């Protein structure tokens, strides 16, 4: 494999960079590694207290091995993920990575969680650049747009601001993300060809294949597709999901059955999940994965570079035929659950 534009002699392990697969991310300037670093686990927000020193070692090692894209958000730890990444990247040449972050979603709870307006977006990019320690952001994304009252609110506010920020050179590409695929499609249609990427999460995983319906549209529109949360936010791991996970009880029970089967066979469900998602039939730019621990980095790289060994493949096939085959369309995702809860809470804030 030829070397990517992000290769820096003396920093990278050249032999491992040559093994990495790189893909053009839509019409952006980015040639990204097939797997990339998700910033949601690089804070104390949702997955337990972060061991920063281990996370730092792991992220730098991942970058040295050829992973060149990091995707975070101000929402992750209310700025903590961005700040942690900024501390880590002080030891990394700027030309060795692409950095993406998000706007519009800011706090975990209360009435100030979201702001899809023009002014807040203009302000937030400077805040993010300061935390990240960079003078431009490669990809700036409209975060969880389904929580807006309607997509026009996002297009006329935050998206308009992003177009200006791109002209100013503070950002180089604009993306959209969220959970409901239909809302992302609507946003891309109304973005008049000026949205560069779409980030979708937990939508082509062992329990949900709904991305397949929308992927041809995304590809036809030439937007770079970013697949995040291939382990379905911890649901598809041997450790299982956190208490806050929004999946329904029936889906959690099926995932738990798969987890127990993997543990009894000394196989990592998370690795099987990564392998499954990366073999999606369709054009995807990169697959975002949490890699705050060296073991996660090694599992994810192994799933990409080596695939599954005979034992893992046998377990994978058994799960697909006997466990995940129980997942019915009506339970495969949790669309609408979080938005409904947020809108009900919003009514109580407005009363006060």
UniProtKB/TrEMBL annotation:
CDD domains recorded: AKR_galDH
GO molecular function annotations of the record: L-galactose dehydrogenase activity
Superkingdom of origin organism: Eukaryota
Pfam families cross-referenced by the UniProt entry: Aldo_ket_red
GO cellular component: cytosol
NADP-dependent oxidoreductase domain mapped to chain residues: 35-313
Classification via Gene3D superfamilies: NADP-dependent oxidoreductase domain (3.20.20.100)
Name recorded for this polypeptide: NADP-dependent oxidoreductase domain-containing protein
Origin species: Chironomus riparius
